[in-house]
Amino acid sequence: MSFIAGLVGGIFGGMGMGGGTLLVPILTVFLSMAQKTSQFMNLVAFIPMSVVCLFLHFKNKLVDFKKVLFILIPAVIMAITSSFLAVKADGVFLQKGFGIFLILLAAIGVAGEIIKKRAKK
Question: What domain count does the chain have?
Answer without folding.
Answer: 1
